Amino acid sequence: MAMATAAASSCTDATWWAYAVPALLGADTLCTHPALLAFALLLATASAALLAWAASPGGPAWAHGRGRLGAIPLVGPRGLPVFGSIFTLSRGLPHRALDAMSRATAGGGGAHRARELMAFSVGSTPAVVSSSPATAREVLAHPCFADRPVKRSARELMFARAIGFAPSGEYWRLLRRVASTNLFSPRRVAAHEPGRQADAGDMLAAIAAEQCASGVVILRPHLQNAALNNIMGSVFGKRYDIFSSGSGAGAGASEAEQLKSMVREGFELLGAFNWSDHLPWLAYFYGPSNVARRCAELVPRVQAFVRGVIDEHRRRRSQSSDAPDDNADFVDVLLSLDGGEKLADDDMVAVLWEMIFRGTDTTALVTEWCMAELVRHPGVQARLRAEVDATVGADGGCPTDADVARMPYLQAVVKETLRAHPPGPLLSWARLATADVALSNGMVVPAGTTAMVNMWAITHDAGVWADPDAFKPERFIPSEGGADVDVRGGDLRLAPFGAGRRVCPGKNLGLVTVGLWVARLVHAFEWALPEGAPPVCLDEVLKLSLEMKTPLAAAAVPRRA
Ligand code: HEM
């Protein structure tokens, strides 16, 4: 009702041109001069847009009083008419830009209101972002924020049928149930340890070879190979010999290359900012990334690949009537579902393909950030290595998942990495309000608003974390005055996996994998900058996740021959 009234009033304000121009020129004049009529209409539309923008904190997408539905109105930057804040957000580091914008808005008298929730416009998309743990919790936990806005690239790449983008109805609940009871259950994660260990072992051997050949290791490709193989093993039950290259490349190397190129293309398409998602009219004039064409080319390749894997599994299963054991891959698990849980082949393709996407880059890049911090902080690295050695033995076997669970300093190092460099600084994929949502601070977020949480702003807020720019794992060790923070969505001061109904279902797998890899990398090598190298560069680049702009290059000195 409030919205309707506001809409009506802004309409009356803005259309005076349409009445004034004929009055000034005479109605006959306008009818006989179509060009003049078109000009008058254009002027009326432009003035309506300008007035609506000028009267709307949050910018053009917040016209018609959308931001004033609650007792406490929303505040936020107006940005530019029509475009809002799109230019600030489409390039650079949007989490930092939004953090700065919310501080600037709060300084203008809104006293922390913009930190709690700030309205802004991405073209015609109304958006809010929270930079405070309390409001972020409300947003993430509220049932009316359980949908996600679906970008064009995600829709065209079939993700609307996958867990991450499916609307929060019965189908999505079924997928979540299957994920928690089957795909990511603690038993399944534990049963996949041998695969994780094998991938880590191959990675360490490849690192040792590169160190021996060139005296320095670019860690990222090793982590990416291990992550891809690890997720391929868990999801498709397939592993490739991708650690050797050229003539040494093993069986399936070309299939692995194909797969890598599909994953790379998908990452680019999903991570790219698509202007026409927010300015639909622009699609007629401008499409620099050719999203539609590239998606149309990629989808059949993905379908052929994933269907091939599903068919292989079907053939194998037709020869055995055994139920899948704990070590079964995701394809076998999905094929074994029955009755109401059974998925159509297209849906299986979407679910499986999404897992490959979600699971590959995140674990690799968290491990890379972690190792970069360990190179920058030799004291932290030495203390961590001492803990690993004390748990496993310096010369003995290699760390296991069970060892990792008994290493509080390692857990603290991983948490501090997630705090300093949250892989999804805006929690990657936003939420969508499906109804008007009243928050406890008196603000109301109207239906149709895209809602984000700026996790980076929260984890770098000096009011939430003391000395936020310093890398200090001790802040998570209670016996040293730190806090025992649950990073799996229970404490919004540090929720890198999100929270609420759409919290990351792969969080345990992600944490176990990163913990094991860091333990093994530190157990096997001493990591340092090569002689004369410049300091580690912590500059960021935000693609689908937050990556190091310059890949880490370090000397990995083997600890034993
Ligand atoms: C360190 C590793 C990881 C991080 C930091 C991470 C982070 C996230 C975040 C922030 C979200 C959005 C949560 C929200 O909206 O509240 C998410 C969702 C999701 N993640 Fe992860 N993730 C990781 C690993 C994984 C892995 C290994 C998988 C699967 C193989 C996975 C699968 C998913 C899926 C399917 C969703 C969508 C859930 C839904 O919308 O219902 N993630 N993740």
From TrEMBL:
Gene3D superfamilies: Cytochrome P450. The keyword Transmembrane helix applies. InterPro entries: Cyt_P450 (IPR001128), Cyt_P450_CS (IPR017972), Cyt_P450_E_grp-I (IPR002401), Cyt_P450_sf (IPR036396), Cytochrome_P450_78A (IPR051996). GO terms for molecular function: heme binding; iron ion binding; monooxygenase activity; oxidoreductase activity, acting on paired donors, with incorporation or reduction of molecular oxygen. Heme binds at residue 504. Its cofactor is heme. The keyword Oxidoreductase applies. Keywords: Heme, Iron, Membrane, Metal-binding, Monooxygenase, Oxidoreductase, Transmembrane, Transmembrane helix. This is Cytochrome P450. It comes from Digitaria exilis.
